[in-house]
């Protein structure tokens, strides 16, 4: 079990299947709060308090689970200053089996992450459009509607306030994301910009990568004009394997 401090209000706990096996906890218990799972959370909080001064005595907690692979998941534990805001962030929870919770297709609970889940929505709409048959009347009375092709690549851009955030992210995504990615710096704003590509990843994998990055950075709008500007005027730090380079440091 590995615990890291993200900021004053959030810690990140990386758990492996072996960590859960050692405590005789299955993932269903972890998701729905058995006594063993509560004991694990208590130990996490105690360790975080001892190592980082992470005090939660006066705050409710929000726990988000992000599966990284079939062997590990990340728990993001956040102190909630305004509990009423939780109602706007979470929808209903549905039960899932162990393999689903450790799969590469989702996390525990539906957390709104603006700018990341649109990837899955885009691909889902394209798939549905290709799968739906055209009616006879539509064929007779009007030209068939053009169905968009699935884009070969998607590109997203994220803004970081410090280079340390980039390095921490790189270690989280190591051995999971292997697409092209470039890191630039805006000297005037003293901000860092990571441009990532879907490349050979599935839409679900790329969506998860974007969700994880959103824990460290803010997503920004990206289009070819932005890419051209960075190519000409941006201070490129490294690429096209920026995260892989930082993960090796």
Description of the structure:
The protein is globular. It has 2 domains: 2-101, no CATH class; 155-247, Alpha-Beta Plaits, CATH 3.30.70. The chain is built from 11 helices and 9 strands. The chain has helices at residues 17-22, 27-32, 35-52, 86-89, 98-101, 118-131, 136-141, 163-173, 203-213, 224-233, 242-247; strands spanning 2-7, 10-16, 61-67, 72-79, 155-160, 181-186, 191-197, 218-220, 235-238. The protein has a 5-stranded antiparallel beta sheet with strand order 8-5-7-6-9, with helices on both faces. It has a 4-stranded antiparallel beta sheet with strand order 1-2-4-3.
Low-confidence stretches: 85-116
Helix run count: 11
Task: Determine the mean pLDDT.
Answer: 74
Q: How many strands in all?
A: 9
- Beginning-to-end CA distance, first to last residue: 22 Å
Overall tally of structural domains = 2
- Biggest sheet statistics: 5 strands, antiparallel
Radius of gyration, Cα only, in angstroms? 21 Å
The global form is globular
Helical content (DSSP H or I, runs of 4+): 25-40%
Structural class: alpha+beta
Strand order in the sheet with the most strands: 8-5-7-6-9
Order of helices and strands: EEHHHEEHHHHEHEEHEHEH
DSSP strand content: 15-25%
